[in-house]
Structures are given as structure tokens and as C-alpha cells.
Amino acid sequence: MKSTLDILPLNSWLETNGKPVIIAGPCSAETAEQVMETTTQIKAEGFANVLRAGVWKPRTRPGSFEGVGEPALAWMQEAHKETGLPVAVEVATPQHIELALKYGVNILWIGARTTVNPFNVQELADALKGVDVPVLVKNPVNPDLQLWIGALERLNQAGIKKLGAIHRGFSNAQETKYRNSPMWHIAVELKTMFPQLPIIGDPSHMAGKRQYLFELAQRALDLNYDGLIIESHRDPDKAWSDAAQQLTPKALGEMLEALSVRSKEYGTDYQSELEVVRAKIDNLDRELLENLAARMSLVERLAEYKRDNNVSAYQVDRFREILKTRAGWGKSMNLFPDLVDELFKLIHMESIRKQTEVMNQPKVSA
Ligand code: PEP
Ligand code: MN
After folding, report:
1. Which ligand neighbours the alpha carbon of 240 most closely?
2. Fewer CB within 10 Å: N-end or C-end of the chain?
3. Interval between CA 5 and ligand 2 midpoint (Å)
4. Average pLDDT taken over every residue of the chain
5. What pLDDT is attached to residue 311?
């Protein structure tokens, strides 16, 4: 479905002096002192354009810290007065919006667990009709670009023109080194569809651990993201939420100093196209391995059958047939013959190894 977004450029509503926007602050507002100390330290470091803090925390399981709620909005208002920096909080219900606006919150963001639900997003969009406030939309927890676009469209149709996207990565089906898989190609595709839409990288929620923040932040800048949102706490290890991924304001300042900001003019299209092609290659390689794994489990079934019927693992005619048919298939696909030949010799060798392993296991009696 074709779509356009009628949005205002980021620099028309946020002053960043041509540099990537930096949004920093604790995962959660915990106490008045923690907010004030953290935000004044951030201000003193001089890198931030916006302060962030979670006031209502969407937690996976009940019983974890769910945010302070309304009192924390007053602390954020104080932080704004003290530092002069705009403040941003997450909203998930129309009531959150009403309260955030009452306390003068300057920028709202919609969290990943809200973006997944079009009913929720529509309620927020309805509550924002006629309100002139910037809204940043985090990607949904699942890797569905359409949901992300849908949320941006709902807000835009409600009249929100100061709009941006936050890329925070996607839930993992399997263990990876990151808490959320970046899947950069999804954000790159969003940017390709809506070049005027600001995209802000959230290395904190991608990483889950502070040791990965730098590489993820650099990657976002290499892809010409318009900014970064990074969690920072006066005493990260004692944070009430997301302790492992937060940095002190000083450490964050040092990290940001070490990042290279690439020129916007150079190679944007080349970079993003490269990223899309690489992502497709990654997917194909994954499918290749999934197919190999599926093939191996069939081999296992075959081996059980052979064992139970006293048939030998290796049958020369079958091997010859495999090499011959695969060579023909490969030729018709314009693949280099040696590649196909070597590949199937390797696969067959592994298949024999697996079969002998299974055949040497005792038969399971029925
Ligand atoms: C957050 O920014 O603190 C947060 C809860 O993030 P997400 O919605 O990306 O999980
Ligand atoms: Mn967090």
C-alpha cells in the first residue's frame, strides 16, 4: 500500500546545530534526586538536546518496577526548568497523554509494546487530535514494518506533523548477543520509503548491555540516522530498571566523543542499498542453514529406518544419483559445477557420519 507522511523536518522543531540529536536520561524516573542529579550531570556534559525518562514502565511481568507515575512528571518539569532542555516521556494511554501535557512534557514517545497494537495507537492518535506536540514512535517489538508505518500514519492522520521514528530493535526468537535484534534493513526500508522521516537509533534497548552500546551507536550513525536515544543514570548499577545497559552521564559523554559522525552528503544511497542487499543475503544464508538442518533431520529418520531393517548406511548408487541430479540442477541455475559437486560431497559425508552415529545407537524397543 502506497503512503505518504506529511511531516515537518526535525530541525524545524528541535535545534541540533546540524548534528545528530542526542536524547539522554534514565530508563526510569525513580526519585526526585535521581532525576535532578542525572539530568544536571547530562546538561553539564553538554552533549544532550533532549532529556528522557520513563514515568510509566511497560514491564513484561507484574511485580517489577512499573514507574512512579504522575509525581515523576513534576520532577521532569523541574529538570526542564533547571537545564532548559526539552523533556521526553513515554505515553501508552490517553490518560498518560493528558497528564504529560499538563506537566508541560515537550516530546512524547510511543513504546515498542504499544506500537504493536493498532487499537492502542488509534486511541493515542485520537487523544492527540488538535495537539501540537512532537511524537516519536518506537518500532513494534516484532519485526513488522507495516505495524510501524501504520502507527506513524495513524498519528499523522490525527494531525501530528512533528513526527519521528525510534529504532530499538526487535525481540529475538533465539539467543543472540543483543537483547533485541537490530535488523537494520527494516529501519533502512522505512527511511527509504519516507526519506523526510527522522530516524533515531536506540542502542540501549538493542544492546541490553553497556559493552555493546558503542558499536550499535556507530552503526546507526554510519547509516545516517538523525540521532540517538541513550539511557543514562547517575548510578547505573543501582538503576531500578535496565541497569545493565545504562551509562553514567560522564561515560556517555566519552562514548559520544569517540563516535564518528559521517557526512550526510557522502554515500547515503550507496550505504543504504548495501545494507538492504546484505540483509537479503543474511536471510538467504539463514534459510540455507535451515534447509540443511531440515535435511539432516530427515537423514536421521532414514538412519533409524536403515538401522531397524539392517540396511547399510552407504549405498553407492544413491550417492551417484545425488551427485548427478544435483549437478544437473546446478547447471540449470548457472551455478559453477565444482561448487555444486564439492558442496554435495560435503553434505553427503556429513550425512554418512550422522547415519553411522544413529545406527550405532541401540534400537529403541516399542
Ligand atoms: C524505554 O525506552 O525505556 C522503553 C521501555 O523502551 P521500549 O519501548 O523500546 O522497550
Ligand atoms: Mn529502558
Report:
1. 2
2. C
3. 28
4. 92
5. 82
Distance 199 CA to ligand 1 centre (A): 16
pLDDT category at 282 given cuts 50, 70, 90 is: confident
pLDDT at 266 over 60: no
For a substitution probing ligand 1, which of 168, 183, 213, 229 has the most ligand atoms within 8 Å of its CB?
168
* One-letter-per-residue 3-state SS of the chain: CCCCCCCCCHHHCCCCCCCCEEEEECCECCCHHHHHHHHHHHHHHCCCCEEECECCCCCCCCCCCCCCCHHHHHHHHHHHHHHCCCEEEECCCHHHHHHHHHCCCCEEEECHHHHCCHHHHHHHHHHCCCCCCCEEEECCCCCCHHHHHHHHHHHHHCCCCCEEEEECCEECCCCCCCCEECCHHHHHHHHHHCCCCCEEECHHHHHCCHHHHHHHHHHHHHCCCCEEEEEECCCHHHCCCCHHHCECHHHHHHHHHHCCCCCCCCCHHHHHHHHHHHHHHHHHHHHHHHHHHHHHHHHHHHHHHHHHCCCCCCCHHHHHHHHHHHHHHHHHCCCCHHHHHHHHHHHHHHHHHHHHHHHCCCCCCC
* Residue 242 Cα: closest atom of ligand 1: 3
Nearest CA to ligand 1 atom 6: 111
Is residue 252 predicted with pLDDT exceeding 80?
yes
pLDDT of residue 253: 98
Which residues does ligand 1 sit against, CB inside 6 Å?
Answer: 27, 54, 58, 111-113, 138, 168, 205
Query: With contact defined as beta carbons under 8 Å apart, do 187 and 219 qualify?
Result: no
